[in-house]
Design goal:
CATH class of the largest domain in chain B: Alpha Beta
Strand content of chain B: 15-25%
CATH topology of the largest domain in chain A: Fumarate Reductase Iron-sulfur Protein, Chain B, domain 2
Structural class of chain A: alpha+beta
Oligomer: heterodimer
CATH superfamily of the largest domain in chain B: FAD/NAD(P)-binding domain
Helix content of chain B: 25-40%
CATH architecture of the largest domain in chain B: 3-Layer(bba) Sandwich
Number of strands of chain A: 7
Largest sheet of chain A: 5 strands, mixed
Strand content of chain A: 5-15%
Radius of gyration of chain B: 23 Å
Number of helices of chain B: 16
Distance between the termini of chain A: 73 Å
Largest sheet of chain B: 7 strands, mixed
CATH architecture of the largest domain in chain A: Orthogonal Bundle
Largest interface: A-B, 60 and 67 residues
Number of helices of chain A: 10
CATH class of the largest domain in chain A: Mainly Alpha
Strand order of the largest sheet of chain A: 2-1-5-3-4
Shape of chain A: elongated
Distance between the termini of chain B: 64 Å
CATH superfamily of the largest domain in chain A: Alpha-helical ferredoxin
Structural class of chain B: alpha/beta
Radius of gyration of chain A: 22 Å
CATH topology of the largest domain in chain B: FAD/NAD(P)-binding domain
Number of domains of chain B: 3
Order of helices and strands of chain A: EEHEEEEEHHHHHHHHH
């Protein structure tokens, strides 16, 4: 059986370093398997999050050789094993320990977005009618497994640390799913412009590239939201309209 | 003096999968304060992995469906060992619970006329599973989560409960730790709802995550509640078998619902070889009729691939044992063959089964639109669990409720696919509702300081023994042993050996040691999980030994007959006796209510 070296970040918010672990690897293994093997055999206190091990829960996000990945879906045969494989925590969030980061900010952000608010039911039995074509695009957004890899690579969060002014790609996808939900009656555009910071996104599409669910975040969620914001707040004709007929 | 922080709630919900979230939402709506404890981050619980759909007799696709058919299907699937009152409530209430999710924002796939689409699934007579492609669980947990966070529920993420606290016979709270810093937390509560899911991690090959260590079952047992029918562990027929690192990962029954067929190494569709008597009238005679069924022909009968999970799993094991398995010890599951039947098969498969396509492509280099998958049984679900009152979901311990997988009764000896997502909605809601009522009617209990001291010092013991045995190794050995001796084929000899092995493992677990400190230390967490895992392993082995018959998911090599002569219908009941030992007994199942008996006869 072959052996490979994994260079894993060990430490907490105060200090840390990469530690090399040699472990045996076999056919079909993913990075998470190797991390678990190391944890079970060499480093019982190595902190790592995981649940489903099938790319469905979005728990095991990390940076493998510098690439934001779900460790459970990253096969070892996709990466060169002749050099140490570096595994480190996501950079856009505060470190708790080893590969585990404090992602609680994301949960706080979500709470602030206005919840789903449906129109009255279409039928007497309290149900609605929706065509599949009308929900296809929202179903794309709802594939999101909240791994936060898109947040991790977004330079507005990662480099500029604007967590208090910008909600990040995950929550633009979330807002888009609500805004484009055929039954929803809420309007979230003012918040998107003023407090959610959609203007900070300069559509470099880094988020789309790393999405393990292949959601076309930038093109299908963020750009349409930006257009709606522009329509509502910057359209010169609408602006005139508002001046002469103030909001009731 | 042990350090801890204290939180007080009217209702504490332990577990934040579908059942826990639904319970928390309901309790909160009843106007009481609610705390919700989850072992992982919110929204990562096991519900997220459910694929095929949620069973509810909405009758959107076939108007012949209704609660009576769903009830009869559930009872038949459970070999009539179900708690019939739960099966009745479930069949009647599931449609409302599903429609409610739509009102909270869920987007299920649609019929042509814009209603919720339903698909075929094993053991369900009509297309009954509301679904979203093959990621229904994700949709459901996200809707419940996103609705729940606006209901004033106080969520404690990455927090594990290790003991329930009692006062005068009643449950009054729980003791646990948060992972980040390893600090202890005391939750004082007037009522506690357990919604901790299942036990699959006690087995080597499982579709379950690290969280599934039977915490709720074990907490309830040690608090004096009863566990019933623990021998009924569902081995889902189709888990991945290759490569080794993905062994056990679930392959949704939806593949077969969409027309997927099972074949052996000789290319034979072996499911036609043996059709159980209970299902003979409902199963197709030839492949062509089976195909028409999957394509919505209302006059066709189901293909044998869509028989109940216990039966399909046993047939697969038979094929492998008799030398007709696939190269890696499974059988073939083929959906690509439908290209013979429909022109746009590849696109159709990718649209209907996107996660499966992705999962096999990524993890096994298999394109399921072009070639068959290799599959074999994987530990998936426990039908048995904490005994509850059907209507209120209260256990035999006052103030302690249970809902979802950790509660027992609905599924009898075997669960139908799709009935677990509906179970967690129906009974999660009921548990939340009645827990809130209990909290309103009863004052706060008193938390015993001495009890807390004792539990805390026990929990910290592994740190006193840094050179003790590696807890991961003990866990692996337990999983290997359970797989071999308490798995899909059981016998007196194996189960007796399992009992002895569990006692040896328990002694080793007592000597487990961990290094490092209390901050996010998986070695420590595993050492603490071991007690729960050993408790439920013992309960499963003991109950399996007691039922000397093969029925539903419980197969005994030494007792192949369905019932012992004269045994009647009974539950196995596991409880802690006065000496603190685990004991098992049998209790007759109450006779079916007359009108429900009529329903079963009416449904044939």
């Amino acid at each position: 059986m072959a052996t490979a070296t994994f260079r894993i970040w060990r430490g907490d918010a105060n200090e840390g370093k990469f530690v090399d672990y040699d472990t045996e690897v076999s056919e079909g293994m993913v990075v998470l398997d190797a991390v678990h093997k190391i944890q079970a055999e060499q480093a019982n206190d190595l902190a790592v999050r995981w649940n489903c091990k099938a790319g469905k829960c979005g728990s095991c996000s990390a940076e493998v050789n510098g690439n934001p990945k779900l460790m459970c879906m990253t096969r070892l045969n996709e990466i060169p094993l002749d050099a140490p494989v570096t595994v480190e925590p996501m950079h856009a969030f505060p470190l708790i320990k080893d590969l585990v980061t404090d992602v609680s900010w994301n949960f706080e952000v979500k709470k602030k977005i206005k919840p789903f608010n449906p129109r009255p039911a279409d039928a007497e039995d309290g149900t609605w009618r929706m065509a599949q074509e009308d929900i296809d695009r929202v179903q794309e957004f709802r594939k999101c497994i909240e791994c936060y890899l898109c947040q991790d690579v977004c330079h507005v969060l990662r480099e500029h640390d604007l967590h208090d002014k910008f909600i990040g790609p995950r929550f633009f996808v979330y807002a888009a799913a609500l805004e484009m939900h055929p039954l929803d009656t809420e309007n979230r555009l003012e918040e998107l412009k003023n407090t959610d910071g959609i203007g900070y996104c300069n559509i470099t599409k880094c988020c789309t590239k790393v999405c393990p669910e292949h959601i076309t975040i930038t093109d299908n969620a963020i750009i349409p939201l930006k257009e709606r914001v522009v329509d509502q707040f910057y359209d010169p004709i609408k602006k005139l309209f508002r001046i002469f007929r103030p909001k009731q | 003096m042990v350090q801890y922080e204290t939180h007080e709630y009217d209702v504490l919900v332990i577990g934040a999968g579908g059942a826990g979230l639904r319970a928390a939402i309901e309790a909160s709506a009843a106007g009481v304060s609610v705390g919700l404890v989850c072992k992982s981050l919110l929204g990562k619980a096991h519900t997220v992995m459910a694929e095929g759909g949620v069973a509810a007799a909405l009758a959107n696709v076939d108007e012949r469906d209704g609660w009576k058919v769903h009830f009869a299907d559930t009872m038949r699937g459970g070999q009539y060992l179900n708690n019939w009152r739960m099966a009745e409530l479930h069949a009647k209430e599931a449609p409302d619970r599903v429609r409610e999710l739509e009102a909270w924002g869920a987007l299920f796939d649609r019929t042509q006329d814009g209603r919720i689409l339903q698909r075929n699934f094993g053991g369900h007579q009509y297309p009954r599973l509301a679904h979203v492609g093959d990621r229904t669980g994700l949709e459901m947990i996200r809707v419940l989560q996103d609705h729940g966070i606006h209901q004033g529920v106080d969520v404690h993420m990455e927090c594990t409960v290790i003991s329930l606290l009692k006062d005068d016979g009643r449950v009054v709270g729980a003791f646990g730790y948060e992972r980040e810093k390893g600090r202890f937390k005391i939750f004082s509560a007037k009522a506690v709802v357990l919604a901790t899911g299942g036990v699959g991690k006690a087995f080597k090959i499982t579709s379950n995550s690290w969280e599934y260590t039977g915490d709720g079952h074990s907490l309830a047992y040690h608090a004096g509640a009863e566990l019933i029918d623990m021998e009924f562990v569902q081995f889902h027929p189709t888990g991945m078998v290759w490569p080794p690192s993905v062994r056990g990962i679930l392959v949704t029954e939806g593949v077969r619902g969409e027309g997927g067929i099972l074949t052996n190494s000789e290319g034979n569709r072996f499911m036609f070889d043996h059709i159980p008597e209970l299902y003979q009238n409902q199963t197709s005679d030839d492949p062509e009729e089976g195909w028409r069924y999957t394509q919505g022909d209302r006059d066709a009968r189901r293909p044998p691939e869509l028989l109940t999970r216990d039966h399909v799993a046993r047939c697969i094991v038979r094929e492998v044992q008799e030398g007709r398995g696939s190269p890696h010890g499974g059988v073939f599951l083929d959906i690509s063959w439908i290209s013979e039947k429909i022109s746009n098969a590849e696109e159709h498969i990718r649209r209907k089964l996107p996660s499966m396509y992705h999962q096999f492509m990524q993890l096994a280099d298999i394109d399921i639109t072009k070639e068959p998958m290799e599959v074999g049984p994987t530990t998936h679900y426990v039908m048995g669990g904490i005994r509850v009152d059907a209507d209120s979901q209260m256990t035999s311990v006052p103030g302690l409720f249970a809902g979802g997988e950790c509660g027992a009764g609905l599924h009898g000896a075997n669960r139908l696919g799709g009935n677990s997502l509906s179970d967690l909605l129906v009974f999660g809601k009921r548990a939340g509702e009645y827990a809130a009522q209990f909290a309103k009617e009863n004052g706060a209990g008193k938390v015993d300081e001495a009890e807390i001291e004792a539990v805390a010092s026990e929990a910290l013991k592994p740190f006193d023994n840094p050179d003790g045995e590696n807890p991961f190794q003990i866990q692996y050995d337990l999983q290997d042993m359970m797989q071999d001796l308490v798995g899909i084929a059981r016998s007196d000899e194996g189960l007796n050996n399992a009992g002895e092995e569990i006692h040896k493992l328990a002694q080793r677990a007592g000597q487990a040691g961990v290094g490092g400190n209390r901050e996010y230390n998986p070695g420590w967490h595993t050492a603490l999980d071991l007690e729960h895992m050993l408790t439920i392993s013992e309960a499963i082995a003991l109950a399996a030994l007691e039922r000397r018959a093969s029925i539903g998911a419980h197969s005994r090599d030494d007792y192949p007959e369905k019932e012992e002569p004269g045994a009647g219908k009974y539950n196995t009941v596991v409880r802690k006796n006065a000496d603190g030992e685990m004991e098992v007994s049998r209790e007759s199942i109450p006779e079916l209510r007359e009108d429900l008996q009529d329903v079963i006869e009416e449904m044939g």
